[in-house]
Write a structure and sequence with these properties.
It comes from Streptomyces celluloflavus. Pfam families: DEAD, Helicase_C, MZB, WHD_HRQ1. Keywords: ATP-binding, Helicase, Hydrolase, Nucleotide-binding. This is DEAD/DEAH box helicase. GO terms for molecular function: helicase activity. This protein is α/β, with parallel strands linked by helices. The chain has 27 helices and 29 strands. A seven-stranded mixed beta sheet has the order 1-9-16-15-12-14-13, sandwiched between helices. Strands 4-5-3-6-7-2-8 form a seven-stranded parallel beta sheet, sandwiched between helices. A hairpin with a 4-residue loop joins strand 22 (about 585-595) and strand 23. The chain starts with 9 loop residues before the first helix and ends in a 5-residue tail after the last helix.
Length: about 800
């Protein structure tokens, strides 16, 4: 097979993986079609075709079969307008599922409610029925503009998709329902129409924070008539982002009260633990919950897939598994050849681009018409690129898509047969959300989780009970985080002067922060209110997605063409000088990162490698909130300051990941004040664990890596949301210490969750290391893809003995 269109070096890298040749186990496009070609193959049949051959079959570590489920109907509440029921019936839905009817009842009674049921269970209709009915009532009001509703989505793609769905559903209602998207992509000339005439406005928290609330006088008629606020995919509002959104929603409620409205909040979530509690934290209101899913579901076959070991060796001579990227590209290729509509979810933007690129090249060898039916989809694309891809997927023009989580949420991709998940997405809730993208028309579906060479992924594919026998996680957010709350108090003061009456809305920490904001010159007290008196916009004090500043623009040096953007917080590691950047199947090299102007200049190139940044990190303890003895050891939780600096980058062979070399970088250090959990051990414990001074650094380092890798099993985080440091003698504790900290200013709740589940978390960490089949440590147990020290030193057996000794004294916090 030729790889003529791949970047230079990919052909060699693929050829080097001779242990897993690219042999399509499924019939090629030129082969006679199987007898069932005119019907959808069952998920079991699709999986059988994927695993033909001994080498493929051996990669399945577990297969879970979820049987089909029948649905339970109910009647629409009597207060739903007959015209709305007629429109729903015209869309082919005769009666609602019971959970849809119950959700509508709460909404019509003026009670905020969260519906937390499975993917494709009809959550949209559960809130749309009462919203459309109320908008229809409002359109008949004799005076004024009538009733309005606001829809919040975490992504632009989801808002655009919902507008299509609402337009189609509400078409029989005429002009009574006027849905309109208002986001950063909305042309300036359309925005005034939306403000004046739109009565179902679809936007995102970012635009609400920066665009709508600061300009609330221009939205006064809309806000005065606001009856419902829909918060879709509310489980995504977690950590720092969720905490920011919680304060944005409090600001919205405050401005609405100024205009005399008190909207009801209707929230939709993937299956989550304690959804009412999370919704209450998010909105500040009492929220009822609907959790019983009464919709039917087709059969789901869920396979756990572990790529094979290769003959290559990585850092410190560790064995290297074939990458999840290469394996997913194979599966996407095979599924596309068989006309199986598939989305492959990928953890990184670069991974999505690379998988699509490899699949396109392989498909070209089968049928020249097939490469155009596979594409990548990720954040950072220009608006017109995103919209074109969404249309192509929706129409079926695209058969295969390699996508980041930008497409995980409720975008209607009905008709998918399979989902391939390249690496555990960080939470069980997200895993099931992604798996649920397939089978959305009620048919059977296949989901495949392809394990990365990572401690948590390896643990999960060999411990399926941790996925299939455990409930989904609780959502973690902290609206009282002072780093979150302070800029929103400033933004609120700019919208309407703050008074003591607002303290109850913004939480108990607000009163203590206001004097500090006065001292800093951000707010000024006049009589009984605090005012924003500065010339700049208060809303610009914070980026609610915690990205640490303005996005860095990626510009083609020769033409000045804008290719896309990257978050400011990721710029040092992704678009530093010499970094490889992928965009729409093309490869670029970063010529220069200009931190003053937030621009990365790139030129198109075909290097035979990818790049990975290396950094150094130091932690100092600012305050210990809680300390618990574990025998002679100590488990602590508190505030820390983290100093981080990107110092170099590695060049790695494509696909295989072999290191080709290292290049130094000169980038400024960055500091972060955040929250951390840490543990210490004594000399006596080291003696009991038989960890000598030569092994100590490697044992602590290995335990740190593995514990970071395992924490997403216990907290709603990704390993990239957290960081860690291990020190044989820390200057603040004067003992061997391991820190795990939140990677966001002020903390995100992940370290606190780790503290409260420390015994289970560290036990799973020890077990994951001990059960790995390698001798001295590998990416499946103690090596980390984000290690700034090149995974050196590491001592696997020392880490097992050290954690075992630590856990002897473990008690619950």
């Amino acid at each position: 097979m030729a790889f003529n269109h791949l970047p230079a070096g990919v052909h060699d890298a693929l050829s080097a993986l001779s242990v897993t040749p690219v042999t399509h186990s499924m019939p090629m496009a030129s082969d006679p079609l199987p007898p069932d070609a005119g019907t959808r193959p069952s998920p079991g049949m699709i999986l059988d075709r994927l695993t033909r051959g001994a080498t493929r079959a051996a990669r399945i570590t577990h297969t879970e079969h979820l049987p089909p489920r029948t649905g339970s109907h109910a009647d629409w509440p009597a207060r739903i307008r007959p015209e709305v029921i007629g429109a729903i019936r015209s869309a082919g839905i005769d009666r609602p599922w019971a959970h849809q009817a119950r959700t509508s009842e709460h909404a019509l009674r003026g009670e905020s409610v969260v519906v937390a049921t499975g993917t494709a269970s009809g959550k949209s209709l559960a809130y749309l029925a009462p919203v459309l009915s109320t908008l229809l009532d409002g359109s008949e009001a004799p005076n004024g503009r009538g009733t309005t509703a606001l829809y919040l989505a975490p992504t632009k793609a989801l808002a655009a998709d919902q507008r299509r769905a609402v337009r189609a559903l509400a078409a029989p209602l005429g002009t009574a329902v006027r849905p309109a998207v208002y986001d950063g992509d909305t042309p300036v000339e359309e925005r005034e129409w939306v403000r004046q005439y739109g009565n179902y406005v679809l936007t995102n928290p970012d635009m609400l924070h920066r665009g709508i609330l600061p300009a609330h006088p221009r939205w006064s008629s809309f806000l005065r008539a606001l009856r419902y606020v829909v918060i879709d995919e509310c489980h995504t509002y977690r950590g720092v982002f969720g905490s920011h959104v919680a304060q944005v929603i409090r600001r919205l409620r405050r401005v609405c009260a100024r205009y005399g409205s008190a909207p009801v909040f209707l929230l939709a979530s993937a299956t989550a633990a304690e959804p009412a509690r999370a919704a209450t934290l998010l909105t500040g209101l009492d929220v009822a919950e609907i959790t019983e899913d009464t919709s039917p579901r087709g059969e789901l076959v869920f396979a756990l897939w572990e790529p094979p070991l290769t003959e290559l060796h990585g850092e410190q001579g560790a064995p290297v598994r074939r990458t999840a990227t290469a394996e997913t590209a194979d599966l996407l290729t095979d599924l596309t050849v068989q006309d199986v509509r598939t989305v492959a979810f990928v953890r990184s933007r670069r991974g999505a681009e690379l998988i699509a690129l490899i699949a396109q090249e392989r498909l070209a060898e089968v049928d020249r018409s097939l490469p155009s039916r596979v594409a990548a989809y990720r954040g950072g694309y220009l608006p017109e690129e995103r919209r074109a891809l969404e249309r192509a997927l929706h129409s079926g023009e695209l058969l295969g898509l390699a996508a980041t989580t930008a497409l995980e949420l409720g975008v209607d991709v009905s008709g998918l047969d399979a989902v391939v998940i390249a690496g555990y997405p960080g939470t069980r809730a997200s895993l099931w959300q992604q798996a649920g993208r397939a089978g959305r028309s009620g048919q059977g579906a296949l989901a495949v989780l392809v394990a990365r060479d990572d401690p948590l992924d390896t643990y999960l594919v060999h411990h399926p009970e941790a996925l299939f026998d455990q409930p989904v996680e609780s959502t973690v957010l902290d609206p009282d985080n002072p780093y979150v709350l302070a800029p929103h108090l400033c933004a609120a003061a700019a919208e309407l002067p703050l008074t003591e009456a607002d303290f109850a809305l913004f939480g108990p920490a607000a009163a203590g922060l206001l004097p500090q904001l006065e001292t800093a010159g951000l707010l000024r007290r006049r009589a009984t209110a605090w005012h924003w008196t500065r010339r700049e916009r208060a809303a610009d004090l914070t980026d609610i997605r915690g990205q640490g500043g303005s996005p860095v623009q990626i510009v083609e040096a020769g033409t000045g063409r804008l290719l896309g953007t990257v978050d400011a917080g990721a710029a040092h590691t992704t678009v530093h000088d010499g970094a490889v950047h992928l965009h729409q199947g093309r490869t670029y090299l970063v010529q220069h990162l200009d931190l003053e102007d937030d621009v990365a200049l790139v030129e198109e190139a075909n290097p035979p490698y990818s790049t990975t940044a290396r950094d150094t990190t130091a932690v100092s303890v600012l305050e210990t909130d809680t300390e618990i003895p574990w025998g002679d050891a100590r488990l602590c939780f508190g505030s820390v300051e983290v100093t981080n600096q990107v110092v170099s980058f590695l060049r790695r062979k494509l696909i295989s990941g072999e290191v080709l070399g290292e290049t130094k970088l000169d980038l400024p250090p960055r500091t972060l004040r955040t929250r951390a959990v840490w543990w210490t051990v004594t000399e006596d414990q080291l003696d009991a664990a038989r960890v000598n001074p030569e092994q100590l650094g490697g044992a602590l380092h290995a335990a740190e890596h593995a514990s970071i890798g395992m924490l997403p099993l216990f907290a709603t985080c990704d390993r990239w949301d957290i960081g860690g440091v291990s020190v044989p003698l820390h200057p603040d504790t004067l003992l061997p210490t391991v820190f795990v900290y939140d990677g966001h200013p002020g903390g995100a709740g992940f370290a606190e969750r780790a503290f409260h589940t420390a015994a289970d978390w560290l036990t799973a960490t020890r077990d994951a290391i001990a059960s790995c089949e390698c001798d001295a440590g590998c990416p499946s147990c103690i090596q980390s893809p984000k290690c700034g020290n090149g995974n050196d030193p590491l001592h696997k057996r020392g880490a097992i003995r050290l954690l075992t000794e630590l856990l002897r004294g473990a008690v619950a916090p």
